[in-house]
Amino acid sequence: MEKIYKGKSIEEAVQKASEELGLIVGEFSHTVVEYGSKGFLGIGAKDFVIQVTYTPDACQCVRDYLEGLFEKMGIEDAAIDITIDKETVVIQVTGEGANLLMKNRGEGVDALQLLLSLIVNRDCGEYYKISFNVNDYKEKTKDRLEALALKTAGQVVKNRRKTTLPPMTSFQRRIIHSKLQDYKDITTYSIGEDPNRRVVVSYCGEDGPAPRPDRNRKGSNRGPRRDGGKGGYGNKRSFDRDRKPRREYVPEGEIYTGPIAHFPGEKLSGTAATMASEGNAAGSSASPVTGGTPFTMDSEN
Q1: pTM confidence score
Q2: Does the pLDDT at position 153 exceed 90?
């Protein structure tokens, strides 16, 4: 990592770098970027500028970044605790203001953990794993998701049906997979793309998934057919509006005086049309029709 320091002399600039970085002179190197001058009677004086190159400590690197980030975000009461456990940098942030990072399913926590991993492994010269936690968010999330995983698995085994859980982050999905990896007759896998990637809890027992119930359409009057076939209306009669009028024929020599009906859009002709027009003119719905005239009438039954 490189930083710029200024001083009235090179020694003064080097001393400032040593105090700020917490390093002794031998732990970093420096080059002079710009030589200073005393000027004339102090007028036009310039500082010496040096560029310091050093390998930062992982803890200090994380602290510097988070303090600068929290200052820009307006988080003032956050306490940062950083320790190194073998090859893992464990970061714990506490404070009410830090709850801002846990919104949107904790996506801020996951994003900061990834960002800190990139920064530390770029600047520190060594590979470190990063564990970033805010107000014990990970412990609380783990307990909640493990309980959800067990409850869902129990329902899946009982119903022998797969269940798709709500969208989760990669950290949350790993908890579900890990908790159910040894659960009997259960398998888990993920579908979809981030940020809508989900975990599917599926039944994988020897008896296979349960058969789906035979569900009729909502509001349907369908029932079993008398001949044993599927579907049909059973004993239910169709609605009157679906019934079509019957074609009738009055035998020769007889007179029909009932109402005359015809299909919508059908034009009556001959005696039937004449009698219908006369009946309409007289304001009556009944007109005599002589035998031998084909026409259509509504059935009484």
Answers
A1: 0.53
A2: yes
